[in-house]
Amino acid sequence: MSATIVIGQDTHGAPVEIDVGELLATRLLVQGNSGSGKSHLLRRLLEESAPLVQQVVIDPEGDFVTLGETFGHVVIDGSAYAEAEIGRLAARIRKHRASVVLALDELEIDQQMKCAGQFLSALFDAPREEWFPALVVVDEAQMFAPAAAGEVSEEARRISLAAMTNLMCRGRKRGLAGVIATQRLAKLAKNVAAEASNFLMGRTFLDIDMIRAADLLGMERRQAEAIRDLSRGQFLGLGPAISRRPVAVSIGEVRTGSRAVVQSYAPPPTASPEELHALLHDNLAEPVREVYRPAPVRADPDELVERIAASQAAPAPRRPDLPEFDAAETEAAIAEILSQMAQEAECTFQPAATLFQDFTLRCRMRGVPTRSFDAVRFRRGFAMAVAGIADPSDPRWTGLLDLAAGVPDDLLAPFLLIGRAATEGRPCPDDAELARIYGTSSPRRIQRLLDYLEKDGLIVVRTDFSGKRSVGLPHLGLATAAVEA
């Protein structure tokens, strides 16, 4: 394959071209400080080569999603997919040769590295018959291939760095041509940067970066000062796909733009200091609610003695006749009592025996017979009440309750709460709510609970790269809405 694109003009106004076929074989490294025009250069390269080759863009800031509007790139929101789904997406991208933009701007840096690493690894692991040529453009490459460990987890760094190393070192035979851009060469892993044979070096001010850029361009160190004098959008290019000698190029115009609105300046508001002070401080403090506490009333000792004597002299009140209940009324009364108990604070933290004793006492006070309602039925009925299932005969709960028949009693309430949320299409209850229902203060116990239910085949827990968790019930074909875990 041999085709050329124009990326800009040299100092004499002559067009500067890039041989796309040679670029696929030799890769490209772009370097420049923030504001030097790296994103503009990458956008020009992508726009001009879009009709010629498949493109895959790793976009940590969401700058390149507008390519989809003009050139038909498929925009993939990395925060919306779990690890396995990202891998399957990448496999289909290689199979169908789709040009895509993987937008990671909704993720934290740790999740960005993991998502990009899994995505690039899946591209790399495609079967041999799908090794079609593709440009893989990675903006802010120092984030995904850091030269040293930073604040991110070691796992994220390992996954991302391994994927970037495979892309630049071994990707050529698989049709993957890495185009990486970085703000600082010193922050980029050397084994990743060293595999590029083409360079476009933009403005940079730090001596260590200027010297390293000059070395890559084959310039003497005393000539490195020229890199500091470059204007925005000007780059020094070298490599088999660009030029055999260093050439200065001013990047040409682009047809798409970033979503970010960049303004040269914005005058401050014209409000007076007093008005701004009022706007900043209005209702700043949270309102404090005053709790009414009645003053204690001290009874007169003589009056208290008289009251006691009067109460002892009074005849005992006659025991009221308790109502008689039929089967349906008994079930309704028991359901009401269970619901009342479930609404009391800290009820799930009480031992089962204590709760059953309290239940039987309440039933006796209302005259409700409990001969057929033993401790086993009470535990399962109380779990349903805690989970908010007031009427077990409701057809909505038939499948869920049948599935719950094999769930241990102590796990039943959290399982039913998750099942209720899935049935109603609501988000999965968070760990704090599940802990309250389970009667524990330990988050680890909740994780073990979910693991047990998942290993038992009752639920499937799915967490995407943005940290949102949803829980599915495969036997019922239901799933909760995704929410932060």
TrEMBL record:
Pfam families linked to this entry: DUF87
SMART domains from the UniProt entry: AAA
Domain of life assignment: Bacteria
Name this protein carries in UniProt: AAA+ ATPase domain-containing protein
Species the sequence originates in: Novosphingobium fluoreni
Domain AAA+ ATPase: 24-214
UniProt cross-references to InterPro entries, sorted A to Z: AAA+_ATPase, ATPase_Atu1862_pred, HerA-like, HerA_central, P-loop_NTPase
